[in-house]
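Structure first, sequence second, as always.
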């Protein structure tokens, strides 16, 4: 089903799911729906874009031009998180000013997070609840799979509320072997029929830098794995910076980036004590 047809199909539905593999254009559909809703209901329409991780929220914000944040951030601002980051059963405030919610990467969300999020929403003021995700991607770390349950319920009761994306635009543009490899293990993948699975697996078996978006490293034991991890980290940093790292300044050069909600805060790791791991990195640089 093409993007335009999907937008037309689900535009009038109050609860919808945009389902598709990585690179099929789910975020593009979100942007098109936002534009359509704004035209239909006017500039006063309010949106809340949410995602389970900071990276996903950043991508959603960049692609749609709308403010996006993590679900935990949304809940924390409304008093639904305890100091230890567990969820409150009650006591938080309820959001009443949002008419359209878009929740991306919804397949990663467990039932406790969804339950708390729904407690924080006044559904009497909500016109649309839009989920985006892929049921074949990584499941939630926590309890249950609410996205899969909602998808199954909509399929049986309201099939027009589901837009299924099949064409992998990202793969067509870049020929990314990582997406091809993932598609081999994806149930019902349309890409699997279009590629030579044996050819992909042979490249993985050979190892090394296969293409620009994936490399494969093998190891024999824990010590070798540890060395190769540090070698890979150092090699990647040197490639990005375009210069060799100084072993005497290695831990001053390392930075910790907090990308929550797109606000990058940086602090140098000067206060860390020299550990066995730091000696390993230093030794790798010297050797």
């Amino acid at each position: 089903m093409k993007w335009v047809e999907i937008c037309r199909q689900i535009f009038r539905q109050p609860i919808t799911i945009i389902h598709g593999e990585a690179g099929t254009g789910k975020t593009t559909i979100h942007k098109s729906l936002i534009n359509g809703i704004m035209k239909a209901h006017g500039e006063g329409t309010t949106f809340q874009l949410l995602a389970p991780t900071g990276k996903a929220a950043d991508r959603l914000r960049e692609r749609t031009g709308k403010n996006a944040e993590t679900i935990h951030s949304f809940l924390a601002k409304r008093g639904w998180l305890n100091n230890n980051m567990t969820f409150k059963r009650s006591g938080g405030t309820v959001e009443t000013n949002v008419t359209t919610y878009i929740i991306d990467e919804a397949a990663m969300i467990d039932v406790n997070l969804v339950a708390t999020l729904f407690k924080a929403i006044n559904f009497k003021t909500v016109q649309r609840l839009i989920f985006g995700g892929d049921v074949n991607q990584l499941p939630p770390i926590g309890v249950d799979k609410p996205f899969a349950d909602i998808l199954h319920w909509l399929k049986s009761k309201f099939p027009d509320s589901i837009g299924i994306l099949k064409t992998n635009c990202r793969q067509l543009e870049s020929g990314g072997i990582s997406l091809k490899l993932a598609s081999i293990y994806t149930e019902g993948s349309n890409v699997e029929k279009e590629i030579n699975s044996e050819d992909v697996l042979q490249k993985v078996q050979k190892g090394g830098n296969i293409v620009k978006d994936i490399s494969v490293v093998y190891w024999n034991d824990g010590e070798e794995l540890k060395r190769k991890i540090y070698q890979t980290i150092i090699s990647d940093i040197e490639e990005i910076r375009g210069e060799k790292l100084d072993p005497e300044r290695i831990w001053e050069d390392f930075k910790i980036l907090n990308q929550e909600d797109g606000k990058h805060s940086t602090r140098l790791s000067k206060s860390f004590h020299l550990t066995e791991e730091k000696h390993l990195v230093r030794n790798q640089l010297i050797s």
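Margin note: The chain has two domains: 3-167, 182-286.
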